[in-house]
Specification:
CATH class of the largest domain: Alpha Beta
Oligomer: single chain
Order of helices and strands: EHEEHHEHEEHEHEHHHHHEHEEHEEHE
CATH superfamily of the largest domain: DNA polymerase, Y-family, little finger domain
CATH architecture of the largest domain: 2-Layer Sandwich
Largest sheet: 6 strands, antiparallel
CATH topology of the largest domain: Dna Ligase, domain 1
Structural class: alpha+beta
Distance between the termini: 44 Å
Shape: globular
Radius of gyration: 22 Å
Strand content: 15-25%
Helix content: 25-40%
Number of strands: 14
Length: about 400
């Protein structure tokens, strides 16, 4: 393998929210631990479950009440978002000490690009990943899993097969053979809603996407035939690094009690907007579009979007856009169970554009940079803009 050949790693911090709680309180090790909503209040979902709890059937996104029934001796913890943010940042710093390029995919997933590391091949990369995983476990008490391959797609699937606390290497040339026997539902992009459609059409494995007769595949997949074939062979279809324009950054809350008071809802939305903005700025990105998610007490969910005049990472831009979207879409006679703010159309900051109000934005930038430094040091929730209202309690979800 030449130094310029693709060489990707996906490293995933196992049961991350649980691992952070165990790093804070080692007495939780070896016990069934669930991080998420409070089952006694009947609200919220499972954000993360230890493998001891998963063995009892507990799964991420399951209602906390259901998890408590499956695992009555589980220890429930509320998410410590500030601690998780801090541990994620510290994990990234460790990965950056050896990987030439680290691209966060989420708070607990990181793509490592060893493609341009001179003299690196699969063997050396595997050794480097093993050292990094040992450091994460030894210094931060964070177990991790990793997949190593020539494409991000195969690295991601291999990482999933490596869980928990292992690493799997798929050598160059073995991608299609590695993927072929796996259930079709293990292909990213084929989720619980679409998998039954593939199964009904006779596509039981990933290999079927590449090997079934061309005419048969085209009848089912239409214009997407070549796309699925290439993915089934282990290729990254897009040349964009991590398809950055399709990524998103955001924050959402499922409230402990449904909200109806305007000031309470405004305070919650402002907090979400600030959190999403901080994460955007920390990633060195700007956003072109904001999406607001509203879920009513009967679980009806609606969305609203706003496209900015220019890509932005400004706190005021994001808060005002979210507030305007809420004003347009919220039926104030109905109580709110969940709010979410998501930023899309992401691009690197200062990539060929200047703010229209450059002078004012430059002053704002200095002020908000100070806010960012405080949040980086003490956690996302350490500083909020004054609202005059008490922020409601929240549950993940």
């Amino acid at each position: 393998m030449s130094p310029s050949s693709p060489l990707w790693v996906l490293l995933d911090l196992d049961a991350f929210y649980v691992s952070v709680e165990r790093a804070k309180d080692p007495s939780l090790c070896g016990k069934p631990v669930i991080v998420g909503g409070d089952p006694e209040r009947g609200r919220g979902i499972v954000a993360s479950a230890s493998y001891e709890a998963r063995a009892r059937g507990v799964r991420t996104a399951m209602p906390a009440v259901s998890a408590a029934r499956l695992c009555p001796d589980a220890i429930f913890r509320r998410p410590d978002f500030a601690a998780c943010s801090d541990y994620s940042r510290r994990a990234a710093a460790i990965l950056e000490s050896e990987a030439p390029r680290v691209i966060p995919a989420s708070i607990d997933e990181f793509y490592l690009d060893f493609s341009k590391r001179a003299g690196f091949d699969f063997e050396k990369t595997s050794g480097a990943v093993a050292r990094l995983r040992a450091r994460l476990a030894g210094e931060l008490f964070l177990p991790s899993s990793a997949g190593i391959a020539t494409s991000r797609l195969v690295a991601k699937i291999a990482c999933g097969k490596a869980k928990p606390d292992r690493q799997i290497l798929v050598p160059a040339g073995d991608e299609a053979a590695f993927l072929a026997p796996l259930p079709v539902g293990e292909m990213p992009g084929i989720g619980p809603r679409t998998e039954p459609t593939f199964l009904a059409a006779g596509y039981l494995t990933i290999g079927d996407l590449a090997t079934r007769p061309e005419a048969e595949r085209r009848d089912f997949l239409g214009d997407h035939t070549e796309y699925w074939k290439r993915r089934a062979l282990g290729e990254d279809v897009s040349d964009e690094i991590l398809d950055e324009r399709e990524r998103s950054i955001g924050a959402e809350e499922t409230f402990e009690r449904d909200l109806s008071e305007g000031e309470e809802v405004s305070a919650a939305l402002a907090s979400l907007s600030e959190t999403a903005c901080f994460r955007l700025r920390r990633s060195g990105l700007v956003a072109a579009t904001l999406s607001l998610k509203i879920r009513y007490e009967d679980f009806e969910t609606i969305t609203a979007s706003h496209t900015f005049r220019e890509p932005t990472d400004g706190y005021d831009d994001i808060r005002q856009a979210a507030a305007a979207a809420l004003e347009r879409r919220w039926k104030k006679s109905r109580r709110l169970r969940l709010l979410g703010v998501r930023l899309t159309g992401l691009a690197p900051k200062n990539a060929g554009w200047l703010p229209l109000d450059f002078d004012n934005r430059e002053r704002e930038e200095r002020a908000f940079a100070a806010v960012d430094r405080i949040k980086e040091k003490f956690g996302e929730g350490s500083l909020r803009f004054a609202r005059g209202t008490k922020k409601p309690e929240r549950a993940p979800g």
